[in-house]
From TrEMBL:
Top-level taxon: Bacteria
Keyword entries, A-Z: Iron, Lyase, Manganese
Pathway the protein takes part in: Carbohydrate metabolism; pentose and glucuronate interconversion
Originating species: Paenibacillus thermoaerophilus
Protein name: Mannonate dehydratase
One family name in Pfam for this protein: UxuA
Entry's Gene Ontology molecular function annotations: mannonate dehydratase activity
Length: 362
């Protein structure tokens, strides 16, 4: 397991590279050129500049999250050709700089969705929260109207200044079914996977968060069958998964450890975090500790260990603790604690394995 830590860049993150290098066992950053809109080519010079910055602190830049996919590609519009060409050029530039894994997602319109970014937990810390009644079964146009009239109903991603763009996108997705989206994903992968292969890069799709369709938009990547189907679209080690235990774990129907066991060789990147799921479908992000949430993190790490996992892992999100002011979900303290918990499990499994091997050798 090769531990990495997401960093949003100089001036764009409260956490510094100096702090990241002091977290035990962290060897690299997970990064992106966040100022570039989806669809643009990432210039080699910008990539190399970032690389110099990270390397000055002994950190590598082998994992990128995300190179976002332009909506025209997901929609299957004729203009996708240009954006796919750009995506290929970005892959080639990243490969040239030594990048090994590109995380991306294929979720229409929204990436992750939460209703509250700072919901208080019992211990006074705060964390990202999803209130199911606010989203599930909600007609998006109704929501647009509601927010336009009552800005206090705004949710993350639904800020009033984004509303007209959102309306336009919802219109564009009208009539786009899940099967259309699968076809568009296949078309995209058939073109980019050979380029990834040629550049020594493994593509790793991030599952839907939350793991179900929202606002009537099709979503493809939220259960075991979806992951299996993704892998069969293009059968290459370069077509892989970012297995996010937090995203998938928000559905009680998903057995994350079982997915690790089944798909281990196609998971170049692990997101390991916990989430507490309530009976009414709400969920909140918790500490990484297995007993604090609904995902058996011990078993998830064990599943990676059993399979000799040598891919990259990050603690994904954390709570906001000790009065830290940070990006929602991306503070230093709780993610660092999470890393130490993951290493604790990993190292004890390693020791046990060595002991077993020694006994067998006697
Ligand atoms: C993730 C996603 O860590 C996160 O915030 O859950 O936002 C993830 O980075 C993207 O879906 C990857 O494309
Ligand atoms: Mn994730």
């Amino acid at each position: 397991m090769r531990m990495v830590f997401r960093w949003y860049g100089e001036g764009n993150d409260t956490v510094t590279l100096k702090q990241i290098r002091q977290i035990p066992g962290v060897e690299g950053i997970v990064w992106a050129l966040h100022d570039l809109p989806p669809g643009e080519v990432w210039p080699l010079e910008r990539i190399l500049e970032l690389k110099r910055q990270a390397e000055a602190y002994g950190l590598h830049i082998e994992v990128v999250e995300s190179v976002n996919v332009h909506e025209d590609i997901k929609l299957g519009l004729p203009s996708r050709e240009k954006y796919i060409e750009n995506y290929k050029r970005t892959i080639a530039n990243l490969g040239q700089a030594g990048v090994k894994v590109i995380c991306y997602n294929f979720m229409p319109v929204f990436d992750w969705i939460r209703t509250d970014l700072f919901k208080e937990l019992e211990d006074g810390s705060t964390a990202l929260f999803y209130e199911s009644a606010k989203v599930d079964g909600m007609d998006p146009m109704e929501l647009v109207r509601l927010i336009a009239e009552n800005p206090e109903f705004t949710m993350p991603g639904w800020e009033p200044e984004r509303l007209s763009r959102l309306t336009e996108l919802f219109e564009a997705y009208r009539g786009v079914t899940e099967e259309h989206l699968w076809e568009n994903l296949r078309y995209f992968l058939e073109q980019i996977i050979p380029v990834a292969e040629a550049n020594g890069i493994r593509m790793a799709i991030h599952p839907d968060d939350p793991p179900w369709p929202v606002f009537g938009l099709p979503r493809l990547m939220h259960n075991r069958d979806h992951l299996a189907r993704l892998l069969s679209l293009v059968d290459s080690p370069a077509n892989g998964i970012t297995l996010c235990s937090g995203a998938l774990g928000a559905s009680r129907d998903n057995d994350v450890a079982a997915m690790v066991r089944e798909f281990a060789d196609r998971i170049p990147f692990a997101h390991i975090r916990n989430v507490r799921v309530y009976d009414n479908g709400d969920f909140i992000e918790t500490s990484h500790r297995a007993r604090d949430g609904s995902v058996d993190i011990c078993d998830v790490v064990k599943a990676y260990h059993e399979n000799g996992f040598t891919g990259y892992a990050r603690p994904d999100h954390g709570r906001h603790i000790w009065d830290e002011k940070c990006r929602p979900g991306y503070g230093l303290y709780d993610r660092a604690l999470g890393i130490m918990y993951l290493w604790g499990i990993w190292d004890s499994l390693e020791r046990e394995k060595r002991r077993r091997e020694e006994t067998a050798a006697c």
